[in-house]
Amino acid sequence: STWGNVSLLKSRCFNGIPDDISGLRSLCWKLILGYLPADKSQWKSSLKSWRQSYQNLLKDYVIPTLEAPRAKVHQEESLEDRKKVIHLPRVQVSDHPLSKEKDSTWKSFFDDHELWEVIEKDTKRTRTELNFFLQPTRRKNTFTHRFAHIWRPFFDDNHPFAGEETHNAVLLRILFIYAKMNPKVAYVQGMNEILAPIYYCFSHDPDEDFQENAEADSFWCFFQLMTEIKESFASIGKDKKSELGVKVKLKEVHDLLSRVDEELWQHFENEKLDPLFYCFRWIMLLFTQEFEISEVTVIWDSLLSHQNRLEFLVYLCVSILVLRKDELLNKEFADVLEILRRINHMDTFDILNTCLLYTSDAADDLLCVDLGGRRIIKKK
Fold first, then answer.
1. Cα torsion angle, 64, 65, 67, 72, sign
2. Nearest to residue 290, comparing CAs of 155, 197, 188?
3. Cα(249)–Cα(167) distance, rounded to whole angstroms?
4. Whether the Cβ atoms of residue 285 and residue 194 lie closer than 8 Å to each other
5. 164: which DSSP letter?
6. What is the pLDDT of residues 266-279, one digit of tens each?
7. What is the pLDDT of residues 25-59, one digit of tens each?
8. 109, 318, 320, 325: which sits with the fewest CB atoms below 10 Å from its CB?
9. CA Rg value for the chain
């Protein structure tokens, strides 16, 4: 079957996953990202194991960051008094709040809270045009409800933890855990945009089990994707040794453009238009900030299915440049940048079709066809 043949599945997903089959994209992405095994008979046990592992991560990383002190809190204390003691870690006598020692409980505590707040600011701004991430998850067994006894006594009724859990709170937990597990990269602004399409897709799965466990499933799929692209984030994160990550891709865009369209490449050279100026964000965020999320998922169907995702990303960048060639030629530096900042109105299928022409070894044998309103390129 297709499920058991991941290579065949990737080939079909590469041409686009139909939107009219509800839940299909969610399932396919789990498979092509390696989260679900090819053998369907192993799905149940595999999901159980991954999801339990995520619950353990929540207890290891998130609970200690949010939990109240171990000291008993008396019922007669006021809300303000209770707020004063929340988040005080249990420490040794020799430790103190101003300690800068690496093994200091206080230092770790304050570092974690600083990280939490940085991520929270970004998750609150994630895809605000959708309003989805600001809405309650309305899941049956949310993290907020299961561990409400830890912090609810310390918050008033207007605090997010005192009410229903929102989707951006889920993004916050996922990204915080990822940062804690990957200290060399930690968290870099933009990771929330990479996570958003995955979580959005999984949260709209009609299967109740997949929807209920969208958080754990999203975490592991995000983790898998980040193993391939984290070098780019590391270059602007804590690991400065990985600075070549995104620079390599930018050079590949430059070199590919020179081979694909020498005229446009020469114009960019004359204007001193380095790819850093116009496609850094495209590569870093996998086009998530350039298009509506419905268009991003279409691009990602092909991107995630490609055997070399980062190479395909380079071809996507060059395809956009070639498609805008008529507008870009003879334009000066500032005008070119302005044009390339506004690619959201471009037809994503045109981009993918052009990209496929450049990546195919037999472009003359390709034919553009319509499949349920989705234009794809297939062999004649």
1. positive
2. 197
3. 32
4. yes
5. P
6. 999 999 999 999 99
7. 999 999 999 999 999 999 999 999 999 999 999 99
8. 325
9. 24
Tell which residue, 12, 290, 270, 294, has the closest CA to residue 130.
Answer: 294
Reduced to 3 states, what is the DSSP secondary structure of residue 158? coil
DSSP 370: E
CA distance 266 to 163: 58
Q: Output the CA torsion sign for 116, 118, 119, 125.
A: positive
Distance, in Å, from the CA atom of 183 to the CA atom of 172, rounded to the nearest integer, reads 16
What are the residue ranges of helices labelled H in 132-190? Answer: 143-146, 148-151, 167-181
Helices then strands, each counted (H, E), the chain: 21, 2
| Chain Cα centroid distance, residue 113 | 22
Return the bridge partners of 375, or none.
370
Angle separating helix axes 244-260 and 262-270, nearest 10 degrees: 120
What is the rounded distance in angstroms from the CA atom of residue 300 to the CA atom of residue 306?
10
Give CA–CA dist 62/376, Å, rounded.
44
| Residue 28 contacts residue 13 (beta carbons within 8 Å) | yes
Q: 3-state SS of 356-368? A: HHHHCCCHHHEEE
Which pair of structure tokens corresponds to residue 380?
């004649």
Q: Alpha-carbon distance 314 to 11, whole Å?
A: 19
Contacts of residue 66, Cβ cutoff 8 Å, sequence gap at least 6: 87, 147, 150, 151
